[in-house]
Amino acid sequence: MLRADLHIHSTVSDGSESISALISAATKNGLDAIAITDHDTLSHKRQIPKETPIFVTAGIEISAIDRHTNTKAHILGYNIQDDAMVEALTIPLLEQRHNNSLKQIRILQEHGYEIDIHGLNKADGKYIYKQHIMEYLYKTGQIPERFGEFYQRVFKNGGYCDFDITYIDVFDAVKTITAAGGKAVLAHSGQQQNFYLIDQLVPLGLAGLEYNHPANSPEDKKVILEYAQKYHLFLTGGSDFHGSNDKMPHKIGDFISDASGIEAIYPN
User: Fold this and answer.
1) Which of 17, 215, 218, 246 can pair with 191 through a Cys bridge, CB separation 3.0 to 4.6 Å?
2) DSSP annotation string for 48-83
3) Which DSSP letter does residue 158 get?
4) Short-list 81, 80, 83, 79, CA closest to 265
5) Residue (of 87, 78, 76) closest to 182 by Cα position
6) Mean pLDDT, the chain, whole residue set
7) How many CA atoms lie within 13 A of 243 on its CB side?
8) Which residues contact 117 (CB under 8 A, 6 or more apart)?
9) The pTM is what?
């Protein structure tokens, strides 16, 4: 069976490492395959080298929400055939995220922080994420750590930059991935405690559940297994690697996919 990490982020979204660096690290760590699942874009699919030492596939992680309960739910998509159909849904979210970050930057500047927009790293060279702001403030010595007291006080807990974007409807996310010929997977459901959505998403095309993930506790995994057996869903796994842009970083390959996920995503 292939050893595969099916949940990894690159600099095309909010990861700190390039696609080539991810492939090198995965190879060094003894993996046979990886899936780069950048947030709300498939641009990385067109940037993966043609020749690689391991299997490299492109997926997507859609930032979604159940608008009836205001519960967040991230949807992974694999084997997508119609990129344009999916990106028609997600690119407006990237633009919204960028504009949200620009507003946060203006507020930070009003509070005395020096931020040169041209000096920030950007997702795919275009979009500013909150992580890029934190990276810049840390590297310029304006904050002592990326996800410490400053982050909790300013970007969380009602701080002056604690405002967010309107995420994609989770039902639309699953339907769109499925209509585009892809396989939709509910990501790290233990993190967001959104198990109740599985009953509603399966009829819309939900095909799998992310089982092996750092945010899924042993209790969460039991629930995930029960749902997988009930609806005959495959199970995936991955490190959710973001590199230095994650407050609790894990190495590529620390969490790998279940065999059923490998068979579903790499059928040959």
Assistant:
1) 215
2) S-SS-SSEEEE-EEEEEEETTTTEEEEEEEES-S-H
3) T
4) 79
5) 78
6) 96
7) 19
8) 102, 105, 128
9) 0.94
Burial of 222 (0-12, 13-18, 19+ CB in 10 A): exposed
Which residue is listed with tokens 């739910």? 73
Closest CA to 100 of 153, 166, 37: 166
How many Å separate Cα 18 from the centre of its chain? Answer: 15
> In the chain, what percentage of residues exceed pLDDT 90?
94
Place of tokens 């507020």: 107
* Count of positions (residues) in the chain: 268
10 Å Cβ neighbour count for 116?
Answer: 9
CA atoms within 13 A on the CB side of 203: 3
The residue-averaged pLDDT of 61-89 equals: 97
Cα atoms found within 13 Å of the Cα of residue 183, Cβ hemisphere only? 20
The tens digit of pLDDT for each residue in 85-135 reads 999 999 999 999 999 999 999 999 999 999 999 999 999 999 999 999 999
- Residue (of 196, 193, 194, 174) closest to 185 by Cα position: 174
**CA of residue 154 relative to chain centroid, distance:** 23
Q: 3-class DSSP state for residue 109?
A: helix
Q: How far is CA 262 from CA 36, 106, 173, 206, in A?
A: 14, 45, 22, 16
